[in-house]
Amino acid sequence: MQNIENLIFDLGGVILTLDMPRAEQYFTDLGVKDYNALFRSGNVSSFFKEYEVGAIADEEFLNALRNLSGLSLSDEQLITAWNAMLGYFPEERIALLNRLKNKYRLFLFSNTNALHLTTFRKMYRDAFGGSAFDDHFERAYYSHLLRMRKPDKASYAYIIKENQLDPSKTVFIDDSMINIEGARSAGLHGIHVKPGMSVLDIDW
């Protein structure tokens, strides 16, 4: 990519695989009815977004999740089901990050939450000999710690300013078009990883 110096990656669906059917199966097996109506994007309760920007703690989130399910589920059951959507880190995607790091400044920006962060960091350590996932990036930004989330323009602007990035020389890579549009509103270039496409298919 000509004249590009910086890359900002999304996590889920771009580097880490996601398994939404697995999460649905876990919740369904626990007795949750109408999973799609409760959990699908566009239908989800406001507490999901509150959790993503660190406005509520784990305990409050789990209680809200329990109330949403309408079932007397333990914290352990809820956490296991909630984390079931996290897939794995394909080795070839990690190898790509290692190659790109020699040419670009790499950053990560993920809409995520405390329970997922703890889990996928451990998944990465277990899969890659105890190394830290965040070490692939100059900075890794997680929405619940940043207290801002995609696609809000202010979230991209914060990252641009903190790292003194030139937006015209920076590409944001995400599997959600609305997040790409948010990045473009902040002056960044955007690459949409469409369904059926992989980050490996991009002409680096």
Please give a handful of descriptors for the protein shown:
204 residues, alpha/beta, Rossmann fold
Structure description:
The chain is α/β, with parallel strands linked by helices and 204 residues long. It folds into two domains: 6-18 and 88-201, 3-Layer(aba) Sandwich (Rossmann fold); 20-83, Putative phosphatase, domain 2 (DNA polymerase, domain 1, Orthogonal Bundle). The chain is built from ten helices and five strands; from the N terminus they run E-H-H-H-H-H-H-E-H-E-H-H-E-H-E. Helix 7 (114-127) links the parallel strand 2 (105-110) and strand 3. The radius of gyration is 17 Å and the shape is globular.
Quick recap:
The chain is of the alpha/beta class.
- Widest beta sheet: strand line-up: 3-2-1-4-5
Number of structurally distinct domains: 2
CATH homologous superfamily classification of the largest domain: HAD superfamily/HAD-like
Spans of at least 5 consecutive residues whose pLDDT stays below 50 are none
Quickly count the helices. 10
CA-to-CA gap between the ends? 6 Å
Strand count: 5
| Percent of sequence in beta strands | 5-15%
Share in helix: 40-55%
Task: Report mean pLDDT, rounded to a whole number.
Answer: 94
Order of helices and strands: EHHHHHHEHEHHEHE
Radius of gyration: 17 Å
Derived structural class: alpha/beta
Q: Mind summarizing the main beta sheet?
A: 5 strands, parallel
Task: Identify the CATH architecture of the largest domain.
Answer: 3-Layer(aba) Sandwich
How would the blueprint of this fold be written?
Elements: E1 6-9, H1 20-29, H2 35-39, H3 46-52, H4 58-69, H5 75-83, H6 91-100, E2 105-110, H7 114-127, E3 139-142, H8 143-146, H9 153-162, E4 170-174, H10 177-185, E5 189-192
Parallel strand pairs: 1-2, 1-4, 2-3, 4-5
Helix pairs in contact: 1-5
